Every structure is written in structure tokens, then in C-alpha cells.
């Protein structure tokens, strides 16, 4: 991730931990090749929604996927209520795990 996004995530992670929430990141920065593979899986119908290589905010170092376990979990609810304090927003309505640094 970009250094400012990583620093903000570290602050958010510490606050979540203090509240008894574990933020486990499944994916953050992606290379062009990693994004190409994910996009191809999406096109094949075997993967989640993925941006075209070169257009993903994961490649720009500001997006991360957090294991939230669904919108009814304590992890998701904590993020929904607190992520904006650290500059993060949920930007893909169909993906509750996808959060982007948007200070």
C-alpha cells in the first residue's frame, strides 16, 4: 500500500484491536500480473468482480480487502461505524470487504 494509506490502516487496526476486533487483510497492493489473473477469473465467471489491469485501486496502493465475514458481523459493523475516522470508505456496494483510503 501507499505509505499514507498503510499508516492510516495501522492506526485503524490498532483502534479495532482495542475494541476487540481483528482486521485481517486478504488483499492489498496488487501487481499488474495479479490484477490480470483476477480480471480473467472475473471474465471467466470463476472470480469476484475485478477491475481491468491498470484500473484497480489495489494497484494504486489505496484499496484493501478485509475479511469481514458479511455485513452482519461485528467486524463489518465496526468498520461501517469507524473506518471513515481513519480515511477509509466502502466504495464497491456489492463488496462489503473492499475498503479504500479516501482521506
TrEMBL record:
InterPro entries assigned to the protein according to its UniProt record, in alphabetical order: DD-CPase-like, VanY-like_core_dom, Zn_M74/Hedgehog-like
Annotated CDD domains: Peptidase_M15
Top-level taxon of the source organism: Bacteria
Residue ranges annotated for the D-alanyl-D-alanine carboxypeptidase-like core domain, each copy included: 1-103
Annotated PANTHER family: D-ALANYL-D-ALANINE CARBOXYPEPTIDASE (PTHR34385), PEPTIDOGLYCAN L-ALANYL-D-GLUTAMATE ENDOPEPTIDASE CWLK (PTHR34385:SF1)
Protein name: M15 family metallopeptidase
Amino acid at each position: 500500500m501507499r505509505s499514507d494509506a498503510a499508516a492510516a490502516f495501522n492506526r485503524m487496526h490498532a483502534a479495532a484491536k482495542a475494541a476487540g476486533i481483528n482486521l485481517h487483510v486478504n488483499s492489498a497492493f496488487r501487481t499488474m500480473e495479479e490484477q490480470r489473473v483476477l480480471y480473467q477469473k472475473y471474465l471467466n465467471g470463476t472470480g469476484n468482480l475485478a477491475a481491468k489491469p491498470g484500473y484497480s485501486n489495489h494497484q494504486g496502493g489505496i484499496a484493501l480487502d478485509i475479511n469481514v465475514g458479511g455485513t452482519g458481523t461485528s467486524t463489518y459493523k465496526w468498520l461501517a461505524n469507524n473506518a471513515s475516522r481513519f480515511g477509509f470508505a466502502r466504495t464497491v456496494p456489492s463488496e462489503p470487504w473492499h475498503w479504500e483510503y479516501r482521506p
